[in-house]
Every structure is written in C-alpha cells, then in structure tokens.
C-alpha cells in the first residue's frame, strides 16, 4: 500500500467537510434551479455552523489539553487537524462566495436584483425610511464598547455589524456593535419596478441608516463590517440531584451562549485596528479558527430566501403518493392487522403516521400508547395526537430525548406541555441518548391485548419528512412489538439487559449482531457461494466495522455502500478493499434512511435501522434495527437501494482523495435516483389500481367466480 494509505481510514472530520463540499457542488450546479441553488448555499453554511459548534469544538478541546489524540482521530494529531480544517474551510468559504456571485448575476438575467445600500433609488429610499422607522429601529440592539467594564457576550447564532466611528474631535476612535435582528426576515423585498424585482439584505438597511442610529455622535467617518462568532455547543450537565432533568438541560442550554469561542468570521475588508480590537476584547486566539469572509455572514438564512412567486426557479414539487392498499380514510389498524406496510417519505405521504396516532387516540379499544421522540416539528401534530389520546383516557408513555442537539429548548417546551396533560415522560438514560424511532399501541380485542406499532429510520417530524428520505414499517407482528415493549421496560429499569428475539438493539447487541451478519457473508464467500452486502446509511466511521468490511472484501464479498455523509472507509484499494464500492447521493432530498441488505447466499435478509455504523450509534445510544419479513416490502427496499446505485447524476464516489468525483454517465441516458424512486412508487400505484379495477370488473361480470376466489386482504 502506498504511503498515503498507510492508516487505512479517511479522517472523519475531513470526510464530513467533503460531504459539505458536495452540498456546495449543488449550489454551483447550473442544472439546479436558481432559487434552490441559494437554498443549498444556506444548507452549506448551516452545516458548517453546526460542525464548528460540535465537532471542531471537541477537537479544539482535545488540542488544548496537549494530548495528540492520534488514537481517536485515525492517525492525525488534534493540533494538526485544527490547522487542516481551518485551511479547508477557508478554501470552501472562498468557493461559496464565488458561487454566490455567479448566482446573483444569473438572478439578474431573470429580473431579480439583490441590491446594496449604494444602489437605492428615490422610491426605494422612501419605502426603506418608513420600514426602518416602523420595523427595524425598535428591534435594534446597539452597544457602545469603549467604556464598558466588561465586553458583552456575542451570541453564536447571530450576525453583528462591527462599527468604527472616528470622532471629529482629536480623531478619537469609538467602537460599537449592532446585532442583526432575527425577528425580521433577513431579505427585505422592495416594491417591484415593472417586471424587475428587488431585494436588499437587512444588514444593508441598517448600514443605510447608520447616520440615524449614531446621530448623537459628532463623527467625521463611520464604517460597518460584519462579524460572526461560533461557540462550543457542548452541554455541561449539572450533577445536582435536587434538580429535575428538564431543569438541568434548560440551564445547560442557557449556559451554551457563553461557551468558548471556536470560530471567528470577519469581513475581509474590515480595518486592521477594528479587527484587532474585537479579537482582543473577545479573547480570540490563534488556536481558534479565524476565517476571513465576505460582506455577509450567516448565509444559512439563504435557506429561507423568498421565492417571489417565481416557481419557475424552483424544483417542481412532487405530491406525496398514497401507499397501495392503505387508505387514509378507513381504519389503518384494521389493515395493519392483516399485513405489514411500508411508508417511504417524502415519496409517500407522512400523513399515514399521524393518521395512525390520531386513530389510536380516538379508538375506544386502544388502552395505551408508547413512543420515542427525538426531533419534533414546530406545532407538532404528533404531540397533539398524544395529548388527545391522554385526554381520551389512554395511558400514554413518551420517551423524549432532551439532549437532541440544538432541539433541547423545543423538546423541553413539549415535555412541559405533555406533563401538564398527564402523559408519563421518560427523560433518557444516564450515559445514553435514545435515538430509536419506535411506537407501540395496545388494543383490547375480544378480551385479549393485541399490539400495533411502527419502527422508523427517521424522526417523527412532519416538517423534515418533506425533505428527508426515511422509511417506516407499520406492523402488527406480535413478537416484534413484544420486543419494543421490552425496550420501554429497559427505559424504566436500565441496569437490566433484556434479550430480544427479533429486534437488534444498541448499545448491547447491534455491534456484535452486525459483525455476525458480515461474518456469515464471509463464510459464504469462502465456501464459493455467491453473496453480497448492500448498506445504505448516513455515516460510516467506526473502525471495527470498517475493518470487518475490509475483511469481507478480502474474502471476496461484493460490497456496495451508499453513504450520504461521512465515509472513513477507503474503497477500491488492492488487497484491502478491492471488492468495495462507495457512493454518495446529494440531491433535492436529504438521504436519511438506513437500509441494510445481506445476500446470505440467496436467502436475502433486509433490515431498517435508526443506527449508522458510527461508534456512538453502536455503543452509546439506544438504537433499533428491525428485520423485514414481508416479501413484498423486502423487494421494495432492495429495489430502492438498486435505484440509488444505478444513478448517474447527483452521484459521487467516496475516495481517499476526497475529490467528490461524479459517477460518469458515458453515453447512458440520465438516471436521477430520487426522480426514478418517485416514478417507481407511481408505477406501483398504477399497477395496484389496474389490478383492483380488473377484480371489480370480474366481480361485476362473474360474481360466482369472484366468490369462489380467496380474496382475503383486498378491501374495496
């Protein structure tokens, strides 16, 4: 093996940055509609913010201890990694500015103009004067800094204008800071002029009114440049036994705002003395990531860029399809009692999941509901249904993860709502996050308890379900649901290790079960039997699992990996991973489902999971992996994987070079996996409708024949 590959793994942080570069590629792709390209720029920026708040912050903490950390970081020291990350990010930021400039120029060809305060017409001036007085000025927080005993805490979710005033008297310099209000849309839509539409950023509205803001000062010059700080998002959980978990998390989230600075971004045109003033006052040092940027920061706001009614500049929205055989109008429980069903959102409607809970809330025969919650939508229908169920006398138990990163405040608010309604809450397990996506209900049928439920790869969140691809299994398989009940018992008494007959559950079993499944494929391959492994996940970074996949490759097992994000495995290396191919799909939807397929020499086994092959998912969280027993659903999931694998646009190869090389189309027609997946479900629906039509026709023309046929499971 050459020297570049001597460590066998790609650094997970650099691999993540390569993933974010793929998001940036979408922003730079001229085949993507213009307004969606701005959305991808926003996603790129938002991702980077979270990366610095969490991952970079952790590496920085390690570097400050003086510990090299090579054992944990795949062969690179923490100190070197901090430098490498900063260099990569500076390059990526520069590329994002270049792309933004191209997009803005192309928007102008579509009569959309993003202007600055120097481009304002007289008519726009009148509009903005009133807008500033009525809307902006009351929301402004402006702080004069020179005479303060203590420098104010700048929030890491906000952008600020660093102000330099040179006074008329003695050329004295005063500094100030203005927080960009988050309560006002960052993009101010100006009155149109004929067919031309104009937008100005709130930052520039403030710049335009600096003379009004600082009118009490006698200055000869004034300048404003944007700065932004990112802080360590690590939660420091209080050990005080007298405080509830909600109190502890709430206090910790509050303290996050004063976390250590880990990144400082500034407008590269800022004066040197102004920059140095802020660096000194904020105690920003060379071990932090100091990154020159453009005129504007917090580009995550571009995710909410106004569409201006220009749907021609956006991706066409595909209406979510129904699940064949499962109606939103009839009883879902009745249908699920007969067979399993699979929901694949956003291709199919997420409404099935909320309908399941609404039906359970109202059904007099349902006596209990148990569910895990991780991230929830604003104004969550899930919460409404659970509260409704409690009001109807059902025993509702909710395990809600208060440490769902950056959603803590929202989850605390929901927890308090549910507590008021008498819902039993479980707040997590010491040392473990609960990341599983499971629900079970108990129903009294003929004086016996029958269970129904669902298991998912994604969060029960109506908002993200429109963008994240996730699969959910609806089932009445009593043994699987009995296993789910055992998981809830584990939440209550977590010193007891339960055994599960069907489900694979972290932290006790997932690692060893997946190793056994891979070992079985190795045994088949060594015996000369044809077999394979197909894995779809978000991240692959656990060294032990990577080594096991290398071992399978050396044994001759063909391995296909669809890994959206981090991939620390190096595919295609002779003697190590020559039988492994790894791709990433980044497109309009965010690929989030985890689907694991093991060839088993022709007796294929398929699993869906909440867990990636990451150490935290395998050893430090409660995760659930579920086998698929229904042959139709099994085929559907295999087909889904194969459609993704066949893609020849939006597909990049994972490689040691981290170059995000696109899969070559050659002379083949365009095959865009996400669009083809939607077509796949449309065709299934058409076939289903055709079959039902034929059956109805047979029933009408030949009633006696119809009666003679066993049509159990078909409901008209």
- The name of the CATH topology of the largest domain is polyphosphate kinase like
Overall mean confidence score, pLDDT: 89
What is the CATH level 1 assignment of the largest domain? Alpha Beta
* CATH H-level homologous superfamily name of the largest domain: Polyphosphate kinase middle domain
Task: Give a verbal description of the structure.
- By secondary structure, this protein is an alpha/beta fold.
- The protein folds into three domains: 32-313, polyphosphate kinase like (2-Layer Sandwich); 332-502, Endonuclease Chain A (Endonuclease, Chain A); 505-671, Endonuclease, Chain A.
- The protein has 19 helices and 27 strands.
- Strands 10, 11, 12, 13, 15, 16, 17 and 22 form an eight-stranded mixed β-sheet that branches.
- Helix 14 (510-526) runs parallel beside helix 15 (543-554) and helix 17 (631-646) runs antiparallel to helix 18.
- The longest helix is centred in the N-terminal third of the chain and has 32 residues, at 78-109.
- The protein is globular, with a radius of gyration of 28 Å.
């Amino acid at each position: 093996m050459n020297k570049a590959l001597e460590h066998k793994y790609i650094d997970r942080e650099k691999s993540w940055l390569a993933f974010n570069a793929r998001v940036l590629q979408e922003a730079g792709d001229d085949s993507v509609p213009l307004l969606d390209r701005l959305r991808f720029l926003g996603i790129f920026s938002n991702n980077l913010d979270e990366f610095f708040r969490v991952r970079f912050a952790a590496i920085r903490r390690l570097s400050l201890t003086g510990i090299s950390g090579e054992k944990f970081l795949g062969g690179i020291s923490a100190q070197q990694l901090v430098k490498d990350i900063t260099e990569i990010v500076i390059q990526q930021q520069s590329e994002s500015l270049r792309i933004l400039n191209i997009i803005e120029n192309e928007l102008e060809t579509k009569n959309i103009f993003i202007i600055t305060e120097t481009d304002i017409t007289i008519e726009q001036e009148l509009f903005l004067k009133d807008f500033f007085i009525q809307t902006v000025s009351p929301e402004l927080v402006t702080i004069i800094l020179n005479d303060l005993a203590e420098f104010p805490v700048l929030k890491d979710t906000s952008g600020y204008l660093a102000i330099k005033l040179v006074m008329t008297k003695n050329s004295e310099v005063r500094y100030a800071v203005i927080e960009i209000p988050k309560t006002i849309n960052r993009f101010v839509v100006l009155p149109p002029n004929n067919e031309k539409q104009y937008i100005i950023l709130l930052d520039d509205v403030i710049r335009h009114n600096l003379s009004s803001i600082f009118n009490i000062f006698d200055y000869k010059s004034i300048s404003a440049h944007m700065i932004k700080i990112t802080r360590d998002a690590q939660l420091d959980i209080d050990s005080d036994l007298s405080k509830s978990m909600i109190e502890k998390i709430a206090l910790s989230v509050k303290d996050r705002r004063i976390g250590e600075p880990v990144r400082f971004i500034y407008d590269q045109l800022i004066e040197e003395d102004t920059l140095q003033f802020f660096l000194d006052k904020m105690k920003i040092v060379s071990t932090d990531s100091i990154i020159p940027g453009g005129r504007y920061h917090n580009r995550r706001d571009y995710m909410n860029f106004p569409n201006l009614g220009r749907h021609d500049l956006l991706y066409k929205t595909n209406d979510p399809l129904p699940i064949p055989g499962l109606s939103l109008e009839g009883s879902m429980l009745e249908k699920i009692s007969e067979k399993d069903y699979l929901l694949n959102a956003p291709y199919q409607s997420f409404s099935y999941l909320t309908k399941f809970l609404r039906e359970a809330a109202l059904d007099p025969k349902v006596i209990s509901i148990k569910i895990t919650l991780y991230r929830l939508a604003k104004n969550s229908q899930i919460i409404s249904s659970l509260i409704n169920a409690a009001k109807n006398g059902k025993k509702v138990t909710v395990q809600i993860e208060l440490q769902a990163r950056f959603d803590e405040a929202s989850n605390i608010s929901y927890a308090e709502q549910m507590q008021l309604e008498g819902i039993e809450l479980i707040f997590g397990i010491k040392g473990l996050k609960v990341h599983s996506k499971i629900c079970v209900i108990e129903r009294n049928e003929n004086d016996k308890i029958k269970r129904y439920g669902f298991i998912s790869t994604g969060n029960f969140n109506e908002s993200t379900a429109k963008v994240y691809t996730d699969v959910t299994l609806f089932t009445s398989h009593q043994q699987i649901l009995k296993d789910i009940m055992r998981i809830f018992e584990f939440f209550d008494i977590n010193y007891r290790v339960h055994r599960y007959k069907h489900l694979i559950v972290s932290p006790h079993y997932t690692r060893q079960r997946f190793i056994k499944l891979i070992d079985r494929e190795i045994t088949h391959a060594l015996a000369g039997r044809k077999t394979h492994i197909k894995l779809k996940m978000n991240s692959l970074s656990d060294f032990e699992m990577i080594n096991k996949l290398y071992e399978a490759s050396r044994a001759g097992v063909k391995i296909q990996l669809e890994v959206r994000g981090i991939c620390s495995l190096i595919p295609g290396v002779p003697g190590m991973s020559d039988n492994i191919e790894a791709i990433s799909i980044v497109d309009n939807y965010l690929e989030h489902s985890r689907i694991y397929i093991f060839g088993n020499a022709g007796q294929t086994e398929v699993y869906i999971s909440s867990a990636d092959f990451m150490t935290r998912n395998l050893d430090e969280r409660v995760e659930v992996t579920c086998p698929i027993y229904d042959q139709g659903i099994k085929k559907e999931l295999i087909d889904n994987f194969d459609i993704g694998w066949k893609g020849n646009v939006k597909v990049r190869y994972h490689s040691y070079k981290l170059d995000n090389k696109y899969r070559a189309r050659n002379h083949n027609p365009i095959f865009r996996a996400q669009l083809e997946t939607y077509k796949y479900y449309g065709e299934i629906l058409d076939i289903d409708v055709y079959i039902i039509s034929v059956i109805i026709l047979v029933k009408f023309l030949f009633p006696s024949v119809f009666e003679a046929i066993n049509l159990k499971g078909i409901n008209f």
